[in-house]
Amino acid sequence: MTKFKIGDLVKYTSGQFGSSPHNPLWGGTEGNVKGTIEEIVCDFSKWAHTDDKEYIYVQWDNGHSNSYASCDLALYLEGICPKCGEDYVIHNDDGTCAEKNP
User: Fold this and answer.
1) Measured between alpha carbons, how far is 7 from 19 in angstroms, rounded to an integer?
2) CA separation, residue 100 to residues 8, 22, 63, 78 (Å)
3) Cα-based torsion angle of the residue sequence 1, 58, 45, 50 in order, rounded to the nearest 10 degrees
4) What is the dihedral of CA 46, 8, 65, 1, to 10 degrees?
5) Using one digit for the tens of pLDDT, what is the confidence trace for 50-78?
6) What's the distance, CA 76 to chain centroid?
């Protein structure tokens, strides 16, 4: 089961498909483009680079869209983190700061 839900804001972080307007790698040639999960579909086939059988459809803020496995995406958080008080922080499972959105 995916760690994402419809409506989540995400960023494409794996680089599995390069960086282009249809695959806007966070910090890549397209800059920092976030997207919204529009649909999550379970398929009998699986992605070549993972055992994930869910296809996550993302509408990017640049007007393009594409589908991904969950390992290709990361949540884009907005606001103040209740754990550390920093803006836009994603935490590791142990509570330490893992990443900050620029």
Assistant:
1) 23
2) 17, 23, 24, 10
3) -70
4) 10
5) 677 788 999 999 999 999 998 899 888 76
6) 7
